[in-house]
Amino acid sequence: MTGFRLGVVQLQVTGAKADNLSRARGLVKEAAGKGSKVVLLPECFNSPYGTSFFSSYAERIPGESTQVLSEAARENKVYLVGGSIPEEDDGKLYNSCTVFAPDGELILKHRKIHLFDIDVPGKIRFQESETLSPGDSLSVFETPFCKVGVGICYDMRFAELAQLYSRRGCQLLVYPGAFNMTTGPAHWELLQRGRALDNQVYVATASPARDETASYVAWGHSTVLIMWAERRYLADIRQQIPIAAQRRDDLYAVTSVQEGSG
């Protein structure tokens, strides 16, 4: 792994898709201007987050939003992790993250594996499965700096996914996400710390900016986490605390049933 600057974009999302795309494009340019080589956008960066919005904002891939992402990656010569957008494909809807190389080429599409279905009495009920279908593959891409594993929001709650990414050589895990005002303060940072510590990786999350007037209020607090604040290099930590070599594979294992990277 070599050093690089990661830009994490937390942006205001409104009901105007064109404005969301323009805002995202401008912030990617700003991040690149500050030296970022990899830029991460939030979950549902092009549309309001909610089951009532997914179908009306859904696009094919490639489509309007991914065209903007491709151009932004190429114009700024960055690896662009395009948060997520509602995707329509063959009559089904997905929550999908696209990744573009510095030449604008689409190199990865991750469909959210674990759908956000929760019911916290008196606080929040949300059922992505009412409109969305889950993805069925792991998603990893290579950069000159490190290997990156991709999840979307609720995917972060599943430690097995992060462990599989780590075992495939990922040094950075990225999660575009939109935790809410109930789960955000309780679990957002805690989950990131858990994934980073358990797997000796960097973890980055990008959230939409908080909008108290929205039907779904995002927690915000986009973050980049490492396991040990005063230590910068993964190789040193992995050598000094060699948990990968100390796992008891004779007693337990986490395996992937579905192979794939997109």
From TrEMBL:
Source taxon at top rank: Eukaryota
Alphabetized Pfam families for the sequence: CN_hydrolase
InterPro entries reported for this sequence: C-N_Hydrolase, C-N_Hydrolase_sf, Nit1/2_C-N_Hydrolase
Tagged with keyword Hydrolase: yes
Protein name: omega-amidase
Gene Ontology cellular-component terms listed: mitochondrion
SUPFAM superfamilies: Carbon-nitrogen hydrolase
PANTHER family recorded: NITRILASE-RELATED (PTHR23088), OMEGA-AMIDASE NIT2 (PTHR23088:SF30)
Lineage: Eukaryota, Metazoa, Chordata, Craniata, Vertebrata
Organism: Seriola lalandi dorsalis
Key word Hydrolase present: yes
GO molecular function: omega-amidase activity
Reaction it catalyzes: 2-oxosuccinamate + H2O = oxaloacetate + NH4(+); 2-oxoglutaramate + H2O = 2-oxoglutarate + NH4(+)
Entry's Gene Ontology BP terms: asparagine metabolic process; glutamine metabolic process; oxaloacetate metabolic process
EC number(s) on file: 3.5.1.3
